[in-house]
Design brief:
alpha/beta, Rossmann fold, Alpha-Beta Plaits, 2 domains, 6-stranded mixed β-sheet, 11 helices, 13 strands, about 30% helix, about 25% strand, globular
């Protein structure tokens, strides 16, 4: 991938303060309250992550920010504009990358970029976008022949074609191999270095921890907590996490009664015990499993992470 210096330059962004302001945002779909009193702000030049399980209200919230859905209540400001009433003015200043996009299979990469650029009063040169997204060698390839990683990079390039001040990225690395995912991480981090603001969703905790300056966690239409990774972890966990493959014959009640255990969580096939005294907890766990004539498999100890915060807030893993 090229270095951030070769990525498209920002021109005329110039905004300071809060790029997105959301106050008491609400959206109904019939009897379902999909977004229920959400409040957050996104600052200029930061990467802001919106996390939540499927059905949490993330997509609906983002669609209201983009002007694709009308809010039923509350206040929205994006780049100082009301997306519900000033969507046409807003579209020239934002970039939107969709998780699934139709990329005109018979057009070449260069043709698609030129076509999308023609939709705006000002667009970046096609060559500049090709270089920035490492697509120059594929400029004459039809989009239907691109690999998954190349299609994702093209989708991001289309979100950048108008040199936006604010970029929305919806799970930009889903389905990519590790090398392609890390290449896109470099690109997204480069946007921040250019002064752009990014609001992104992701299903990868590592991605959120590495890229996002701040995060908001949603579930059931509500915003549960917001802050940096350090703030989110620090507010909830002073303990370490003892993880092992779940043993069906050990109930939550039994595990909660082990020495120094402050809470028990189930995460997929694993059990997690949070404790301020790791030796005491592991000793008690080994005694309990020995009495059942079993051993805890894949036993490990680590500090609490964003994944622990998410599980504690929502009761389920991010991909549930």
């Amino acid at each position: 991938m090229p270095t951030p210096a070769t990525s498209p330059a920002v021109t005329g962004t110039g905004a300071t303060g809060d790029v997105i302001v959301v106050r008491d945002l609400r959206k109904h779909f019939g009897p379902v309250l999909a977004v229920n009193g959400v409040d957050f702000v996104v600052h200029t030049g930061e990467i802001f992550g919106l996390l939540g399980p499927n059905g949490a209200g993330k997509t609906t919230t983002i669609e209201m920010l983009e002007g694709l859905q009308r809010a039923d209540g509350g206040e929205l400001r994006v780049l100082g504009l009301d997306p519900g009433r000033q969507a046409s003015q807003l579209k020239a200043r934002i970039g939107v990358q969709l998780q699934t996009a139709s990329l005109y299979p018979q057009l070449t990469v260069a043709e698609i970029l030129a076509l999308f650029g023609s939709f705006y009063p000002r667009a970046l040169p096609v060559k500049q976008l090709l270089d920035a997204l490492d697509l120059d060698e594929k400029k004459d390839a039809r989009s239907k022949t691109l690999s998954g990683g190349q299609q994702q990079r093209l989708s991001v390039a289309l979100a950048m074609v108008n040199d936006p001040e604010l970029v929305f990225l919806d799970e930009p690395t889903t389905g990519l191999d590790p090398a392609a995912r890390r290449a896109l991480w470099d690109l997204i981090a480069g946007m921040r270095q250019q002064g752009k603001t990014v609001l992104m969703t992701t299903h990868y905790m590592e991605e959120a921890e590495i890229l996002c300056d701040r995060l908001a966690i949603m579930d059931h239409g509500k915003l549960l907590d917001m802050g940096t990774v350090t703030e989110l972890v620090g507010r909830r966990f002073k303990e370490r996490a003892v993880r092992f493959d779940t043993i069906d014959r050990l109930t939550d009640a039994q595990l909660s009664g082990l020495a120094a255990v402050s809470r028990v969580a189930r995460e997929g096939p694993e059990t997690v015990l949070y404790t301020p005294d790791v030796p005491a907890t592991i000793g008690a766990l080994l005694s309990a499993t020995e009495a059942l004539s079993v051993e805890p498999s894949n036993l490990m100890v680590r500090r609490a992470t964003l994944e622990d915060v998410f599980l504690d807030l929502t009761g389920r893993a991010l991909r549930d």
